[in-house]
Each structure stands twice: as C-alpha cells, then as structure tokens.
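Most newcomers find our protein records easier to grasp once they have seen one. There is nothing in a record beyond a sequence line and a structure line. Getting from the letters to the tokens is the skill we practise here. An example says more than a description, so a record of this kind follows:
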Amino acid sequence: MLNFAVCDDNMVILNRLVKMLEGIFIENNLDAEVSFFSSTATKLLEYTNSNNIDVLILDINFKSEYSGLELAKKIRENNKNLYLIFFTAHLEYALVAYKLKTFDYLPKPVTPERLEETVLRIFEDLKEGNTKTNFIKLGNSKVLLKENDIQYIQKDGMKLIYHTSDRTYETYSSLSKIQNSLPSNFVRCHKSYIVNVNNITNIKSNDTVIFNSQNSCSIGPKYKNNLMEVFNNGNYAKYLDSIDD
C-alpha cells in the first residue's frame, strides 16, 4: 500500500486533486490511498512527524508560515525515500524544486492525464527495483507492501497471509516459493511462519514471537536454533526490547 499526502492552501484545488487521485487508483487497480490531505502547513508537518507517507503532492507557492519548498525540505529530512511531486503556476520555481530530489513537477492546472502519468511512473519505478527492497511485491498482483510494515507471513492452506500492524493481505503461493526472494531479515521460525526480525519486540519463553502491534506467532522447535542464530550472528538482536529464553 502506497500512502499519498496532498497539501494545497486552496481547498477547491485540494479537493479536486484528491478526487483525481482516487479515480486513478480505482481505474488502474493500484494499491494506494490518499491517507492525508490538508490546506494547512502545520497540520501536514504534525501528520508526517508521526505517520509515514510514501508520496507527497505539494503546492510550491504555499501561502503560510512555510513555503512549499520549506515544507518539503523539513519532511524529507525524516523521509529520504519520499516521492516528492510539486505543482504550481509559477514555472520559475521548477529548477529549485528539482534540487530537493523531486520526482516530478506538474504545472497548474493539473490535468487527470498528466497526474495519472506521474502516478503510474511511481509504480513502474518501484517495479524496476529502484527502491532496493524497501517494497515487496505481493505475488503476481500489483500490490506493493512496504518491507518494514510486514511483521510476519503466514501459510494458511494454499494461501499466504501477510500480516502488518493494521491489516492483512492474502495471495496464493507458498513459503518455499517466496523465501529465497525475501530480504535476509525475513527468517523462517515455524513451518507456517516467516517473521520480519526487524519488527520483533519480544520473544517469550513459551516460544512465541511478539510484534510491536501485539500480534504474535509461534516458534517451531525445528526452527528455533536458526532464528536465534540470526539474532546472534546477524546483529538483529538490537531490534529486541527483550528476549526471555
């Protein structure tokens, strides 16, 4: 799931952009949503300080205590992988905007066709692997999950269930088919589970893995030594609050 945020001090333009984006997501069957939109710079900063966004669409000529460029600079300091898209009627800002590693620059008025082209290029960019395993593709679908969002992957019959902190995703496959394609921080801990060790907060003495959202899964006796070996030799133990073993 890609989370989009949109910010413009003109509510008419803001609402139009949100509707355009939602239409593009539906039309192209994209796993994305507008998770935040606002006409206020401070609200955008507050949101991004406590929530992760993947794509920010922002007016450069923002009439507030911060310009669009200043806003983008502050947000990028904490989010290096952000896809940044600017739009404005003032073409002279374009060169400055690109210095902030801007993915695209949209002149006003933004058309649905031009916006769709940019959104599809983001998904194409991810598909080509330019994110260096920050995203994991869900089977043969167009769904892309952020690697850090995945807590564990569960085998359930012919299905795999990807568990994140707030929801689950299902696809038809097997753990053996995907295991070699996953990053090294994904470790088999049970015949039915692969865990993302970066998201483990505790390992209980009853052989249960606890995640930061209080989700949990079991450790199988066959896999326990291998899981602990990863912690000891892979330096993943720093991600744990405690290990009760």
Summary: The helical segments are 11-27, 41-50, 68-78, 94-98, 112-127, 175-178, 221-233. The chain has two domains: 2-127, 142-243.
